[in-house]
Amino acid sequence: MTIPPHIIEVAIPLHLDRTFHYLVPEMLLAQALPGRRALVPFGRRKLTGYILAIAADSQIEKLKEILGVLDDEPLWTGSEYAFFRWVASYYLNPIGEVLKTALPTGINVQTRKGDSGEESGLTGGRSVRREKFYLPGPSTETSRQPGAKALEILEVIRESGDISAAILRKRFGNCTPQLKRLCELGLIAAEEREIYRDPFKNHTVKRDEPRILHTHQKMALETISSSLDLNKFMPFLLYGVTGSGKTEIYLQAISHALDQGKSALVLVPEIALTPQLTGRFQARFGGGIAILHSGLSDGERYDEWRRIRRGLARIVIGARSAVFAPLENIGIIIVDEEHEASFKQSDGLRYNARDLALVRGRMERAAVVLGSATPLVTSIHSAGEGRLTLLELPERVEQRPMPSVDLIPMKGNKETISTPLGVLLTQTFESGQQAIVFLNRRGFATFLVCGDCGKPLTCPNCSVTLTYHRQRGQSICHYCDYSVPAPCICPTCGATELKELGAGTEKLEQNLKLLLPQARVLRMDSDTTSGRGSHERLLSRMSDGTADILVGTQMIAKGHDFPGVTLVGVINAEASLGIPDFRAAERTFQLLSQVIGRAGRGEKPGRVVVQAYDTENYAIRSAAGHDAAGFYRQELEFRREAGYPPFTFLAALSISGISEQSVSEQAGQTAKLLVRIKQEIKVRVELLGPAPSPIYRLRGRFRRQILLKAAARADLHRLILSWRQRSRTISTVRVTVDIDPLDLM
Ligand code: ADP
Ligand code: ZN
What we know:
Helices cover 32% and strands 24% of the residues. The chain contains 20 helices and 30 strands. It is globular, with a radius of gyration of 29 Å. Helix 7 (215-230) runs parallel beside helix 8 (246-259) and helix 17 packs antiparallel against helix 18. It is of the alpha/beta class. It binds adenosine-5'-diphosphate and zinc ion (ZN). Zinc ion binds at residues 459, 461-462, 477, 479-480, 482.
């Protein structure tokens, strides 16, 4: 009898728009199932592919055989697969790349192992950690005496039922000979078990009880809970001012979902994944929580992934990639700080986790809660149109007032810290309270300018100026890390006199120390938080009161709850307004409102000083005046007039390469082809460019951009798809497609 040949469809994690078919040798028939990875010959290489399906009819001739199967359990479920397919088609990425992004990197360590034929799969490989456990053995009596220490150990093992080797060693020191002897006598048995590294291991947390909700919180929670009871997709915008108790609603809504036997997915910006936030979840729910963020090692991440896959964690908290978490039976998805740009991945698969949360929620029939004190302009618009259900928390908890804000005009004023801010800082420090001073520029001076020829010091690889870092004694490019010793001579004219222009956080820190020599000043920016755990150490010094003033970039604006902070100072409020991006006003408004919101979250009311050159700008005025409604009205009007989201959909094509001429040629050809196809297939898409990107040179590559705008998403997709089928790129030039781009720099 001949067995019918078994053919599978395999996706390869490369940028290829198609999948491939392979034959399965008879001995692998039982293992080569969809959802697992296979080792396949590909050209002259061996690659890891993802088995998507069993193919029914295909040309058998010329098909190659797979070399092995790498997993003994499926890595994704049917509904996850449907989600991955959606992602692939929406972002116009091959399914193999989506699977590679969705699965933890730790899994691939085994792929290399798989090559050599060693054990692999969910339970195998180098990233899985195992430990020895001991339990009572088959015999209870023995004629031979194992010795006094061994008897003591035996008693402990019998009492505990089972105990890990690590714990025994902690108690008895080296006890390998005794354990060996006990095993030989059959009094105990040893067992290898897979263990999971614990991301919480260094934290002890007090148990915490649900708060009694205030009226607005109660209304919001009831609406979310009743949608959970209905078991259908419901998207919400939880719009609550800073300190209004949004997190408390997340906690109680999740608790409702757990009571129904469902699970919960919580997405937060990377920077917010501090012990402060995860601790609140742990204090409320105890165990069963998995954490996914970039601070974990590949092995730790993979451990968390396996705990989720096996249903051992019912709450998953993570940064953007957690939207792909292998969580089943999802009842609720929360996206905290939904306005954050960090939900968008900026390379490879350019997905936006905030948007995908809504897609996954729809597929899982879950409630999706987008929470923010400063929602996206597009979210406010969706809420107005009824596509998101608006839940508002217009007041802070316990009727704490919003901080009072003074807007200080700085035109003609050369000081970094204005007199009113200086006076308030002194008063705050003297009364034993804490302050935050915000400046969205790191380094000492923004750049150095030659006193003779007037040329600024620029990066040789990027079209940006270098930032002077005094402590490191270097001028550094914030994009490619190029650095030169500073002070140095002017590369243009050789003059030795370089002037420092524009203050950064390093200089601000120095100024504050001069103003208040006794104050304990901390600085938080990406220069001081590069070490593992350094971010948390700085934050904990604010919460335990061993610091008086925290200076920093946007990092200090995000979600932190420091009840002791009564004063916030903003230096140079318009720093983010000058960026050539239609979202500059929105981002400035959000950033300022968030920083202002750090003041007065405790019992004492807060005060804020905002220093600005352009005090008439609507983003700055609205943030200072707590007039969010006014800001959104004006911004939506501008977007409608200029034809930007939410009134249109965007896609960006970036063309980059080392040779400026090839890049320019390719950009021109690409635009021409797009115009031709647009006329042929009759789609309504507006083409802008090709134009040099605002940073026209980055890490040695020249960059051009074509922006596509359309009133209908489908038109954009059709145009790009047909273009992709027909386009030919010069081999030294890279063309990437970004759907719903956030970064137009
Ligand atoms: P948000 O997430 O909106 O900034 P939080 O949820 O962090 O606000 O709440 C701010 C503070 O108020 C937290 O310390 C929280 O424990 C507390 N809180 C929240 N809800 C209540 C409530 N109903 N009663 C008392 N305190 C509350
Ligand atoms: Zn550079």
